Automatic annotation (TrEMBL):
Highest taxon listed in the record's lineage: Bacteria
Chain positions covered by the region annotation Disordered: 248-295, 423-562
Domain MobA/VirD2-like nuclease, chain residue ranges per copy: 25-143
Range of residues in the leader sequence: none
Compositional bias segments (type: Basic and acidic residues): 273-295, 435-448, 459-523
Name assigned to this protein: Relaxase/mobilization nuclease domain-containing protein
Chain intervals with Low complexity compositional bias: 423-434
C-alpha cells in the first residue's frame, strides 16, 4: 500500500482534477462530510471560505491511497479513519473520491486543515513519516506484500546491488549506443543460461542482436549491433572461465567470422534497419494520426452528451419555474377576487390614508398582516429569490463542466503529444528485437565521427600487425589522429539538429577555412570607407544569405516577407 499526501491550495483546480473522467475509467464521489454543498467544487469552496478567516496558505490536505491488492469499501473507510486519526485530522470536513484507472481502484481523500472552533490550521508535522508508518501498518493488517521501498523503511537497511564497474572504453560505448554494461551482461548471461550447447548459445546471441566472433587476442569475442567488440568471459555473470571453455569446446573457432567480418555484418544490419525504420516510422505516424482523430471524436461525443444532459436539465428548470410563477399568480388572482381580500385591502387603505388611524393602528396593522397585498409581494419576492439561487447553481454547474471539459481536452492533447513523441522515438524493430539500442544516428557530425573512428581503428589494427598501408606516411597518420581528436572534442557540446543551427555551423566552418587559407573570394569582399577592398565578416555574409540575428542564441533563418 502506497500513501502520498501533501498540504495544498487551489480547491477548484483540485476538484476539476479529481472529477476528470478522461484520465480515469470511472470516477465516483463517495462521501462529503462537514459541508452544505453536495458537489466537490462547492465543498472545496466552503473549505477555502472558512480558511479565508485564518492565515493559512494551504488549507487543504490531499491524500491518495493506492493498495497493492483490491480492498473493500469498508476496508477503505477503515483505513481512511486510521490515517485521519494518525494525522490529527479527526472529525475534520473531508471528501472521498474513488478512481478506477487501468483496471486498478484507488482512493483520494481531501481534508480541510482549518479547525472551525479555534480558527487555526492544524499543523501537519512529520506527515511523510506518519504516512510511511501507516502504510506498513495497513499492509500488514490486510495481508498485503510490502514494496521494496517500505521494506527498506521498515528494516532501516540498504540493499546492495551487484554492479559491473565500467571501463573508459565501456563508458564511451554506452554514450554511443545507450546500452549500459549491466544491460549487456544481462543479455549475454541470459543467452548463455537458456542455451545447452555452444551452437545454441550462438543462435541465442544472434536473436539478441549480438554476433559471436573469433577473437584476435582471445578465443571468442562478441560484436554488438553497433560494431563494438566485447570480451565474452567478462560479460558472463557468475560463470567460471573453466566452465565457459568446456561448453565452447565443441564449437570450432574457424567456423566463426572474424572480428572484421562481424563488424561488416553489423554495418549491413544497420543499413537494412535504417530502411525498415523509415517505412515503419511512416506507418506509425499514419496510425498515430488516425488514433488521434478517433480519440478526439470520442471525447467530443462524450462531452456533447454531458452538455445535452445539462441543457435538458436547464430547460426542465426553466419550465418548472414558469409553472410555479403561473401557479402562484393564479392563486393570488383567485384570492384577490374574494370579498375578504377586498375588505382587508380597503381597511388597510383607510388606515394608511387617515393620519389619526395610522398613528394608532399602523404598527398593529403591519404586524398582523392586515393588507394581503403585502403578503403577495413577499411571496413573489421569495419565489424570485429561490429561482435566482437555482439559476446561480445551474451557472456554477456549467462553469464546473466547462473546466472539466477543458481539463479533459488538455489531458487528451497531452497524451496525443506523448504518443506522437513515443512513436517518433520508438526503437525500430530489427532482426534482433531483444537488443537494446538507440535510434539510427542521422546527425552529420555523428556520422562523420563514426567514419573517423572506424578509419582510426582500421589504421591502429594495421599498425599492430606490423605494417602500414601502401603509400601511407607519418604525416597522414598524424592527420587521421588529429581529425579523430577534433571529432571527440566536438562531441562534448550538445548535438545540433535544428536546420538553422546546422547552417550556422556551416557558415562558421566556411569562415574558419577561408581565414586559415587566407584566400579571399570576390563575392565576400566589400569596399570600405577609404575605397579599399575589405573582407566582409561572417555575420555580414550570413545576413546577406537571408539570416537575421536571433534573440536567444545564434542566428535564425529569415522568412520571406519578414
Amino acid at each position: 500500500m502506497i500513501l502520498k499526501g501533501s498540504a495544498r491550495s487551489g480547491g477548484s483546480d483540485l476538484a476539476t482534477h479529481l472529477l476528470n473522467a478522461y484520465d480515469n475509467e470511472q470516477v465516483e464521489l463517495a462521501d462529503i462530510r462537514g459541508t452544505i454543498a453536495d458537489d466537490l467544487h462547492g465543498a472545496f469552496a466552503e473549505f477555502e471560505a472558512v480558511a479565508s478567516g485564518t492565515k493559512a496558505q494551504k488549507p487543504l490536505y490531499s491524500l491518495s491511497v493506492n493498495p497493492s491488492e483490491p480492498l473493500t469499501r469498508e476496508q477503505y473507510i477503515e483505513a481512511v479513519e486510521a490515517i485521519e486519526n494518525k494525522l490529527g485530522l479527526t472529525g475534520q470536513p473531508r471528501a472521498i473520491v474513488f478512481h478506477i484507472k487501468d483496471g486498478r481502484e484507488h482512493c483520494h481523500v481531501v481534508w480541510s486543515r482549518i479547525d472551525g472552533a479555534e480558527m487555526k490550521a492544524i499543523h501537519m508535522a512529520h506527515d511523510r513519516r506518519k504516512l510511511c508508518d501507516m502504510a506498513v501498518h495497513l499492509a500488514e493488517q490486510y495481508g498485503h506484500e510490502l514494496p521494496e521501498g517500505l521494506k527498506a523503511w521498515k528494516q532501516r537497511e540498504q540493499f546492495k546491488k551487484d554492479k559491473l564497474e565500467a571501463t573508459l572504453a565501456e563508458n564511451a560505448q554506452q554514450k554511443k549506443s545507450g546500452i549500459t554494461p549491466e544491460q549487456r551482461r544481462e543479455d549475454i548471461t541470459a543467452a548463455y543460461r537458456e542455451a545447452d550447447s555452444a551452437s545454441a548459445f550462438r543462435h541465442a546471441l544472434e536473436e539478441r542482436g549480438y554476433i559471436l566472433a573469433r577473437g584476435d587476442r582471445r578465443a571468442f569475442a562478441v560484436v554488438d549491433w553497433f560494431g563494438d567488440v566485447h570480451s565474452l568471459s567478462r560479460y558472463l555473470k557468475d560463470v567460471p572461465r573453466k566452465e565457459m571453455r568446456a561448453r565452447m569446446k565443441s564449437l570450432d573457432p574457424l567456423s566463426l567470422p572474424s572480428v572484421e567480418q562481424a563488424k561488416e555484418q553489423a554495418r549491413a544490419q544497420q543499413k537494412a534497419s535504417a530502411e525498415r525504420a523509415r517505412e515503419q516510422r511512416a506507418a506509425q505516424e499514419d496510425a498515430v494520426k488516425r488514433r488521434s482523430a478517433e480519440k478526439r471524436a470520442a471525447m467530443e461525443r462524450v462531452q456533447s452528451a454531458r452538455w445535452l444532459a445539462l441543457s435538458q436539465m436547464e430547460q426542465a428548470l426553466f419550465l418548472t419555474q414558469q409553472q410555479e410563477r403561473m401557479a402562484l399568480h393564479a392563486a393570488q388572482q383567485t384570492e384577490a377576487s374574494g370579498m375578504v381580500f377586498r375588505m382587508r385591502a380597503k381597511v388597510a387603505d383607510l388606515v394608511a390614508g387617515t393620519p389619526a388611524l395610522q398613528s394608532v393602528l399602523g404598527h398593529i396593522a403591519g404586524r398582523a398582516g392586515l393588507d394581503p397585498r403585502e403578503r403577495h409581494k413577499l411571496e413573489n419576492e421569495a419565489l424570485d429569490r429561490r429561482h435566482e439561487r437555482e439559476k446561480i447553481a445551474l451557472e456554477g454547474r456549467k462553469k464546473a463542466l466547462d473546466k472539466i471539459d477543458r481539463r479533459e481536452r488538455m489531458a487528451l492533447e497531452r497524451d496525443l503529444k506523448r504518443e506522437a513523441l513515443a512513436a517518433r522515438a520508438a526503437p525500430v524493430a530489427r532482426a534482433a528485437p531483444q537488443q537494446r539500442e538507440k535510434g539510427t544516428r542521422t546527425d552529420p557530425r555523428l556520422l562523420q565521427e563514426d567514419g573517423l573512428g572506424a578509419a582510426f581503428n582500421d589504421k591502429a589494427v594495421e599498425e599492430a600487425r606490423g605494417g602500414r598501408g601502401d603509400g601511407e606516411t607519418e604525416g597522414e597518420g598524424r592527420r587521421l589522429r588529429d581529425s579523430w581528436d577534433q571529432a571527440q572534442k566536438q562531441d562534448k557540446r550538445p548535438h545540433r539538429t535544428d536546420p538553422r543551427l546546422l547552417e550556422d555551423d556551416a557558415l562558421r566552418a566556411e569562415f574558419d577555412e577561408a581565414a586559415q587559407a587566407r584566400r579571399h573570394d570576390s563575392t565576400d569582399e566589400g569596399e570600405g570607407e577609404d575605397g579599399r577592398s575589405r573582407r566582409k565578416s561572417w555575420k555580414q555574409r550570413a545576413q546577406e544569405k537571408g539570416h537575421r540575428r536571433g534573440r536567444g542564441r545564434g542566428y535564425g533563418m529569415k522568412r520571406d516577407g519578414d
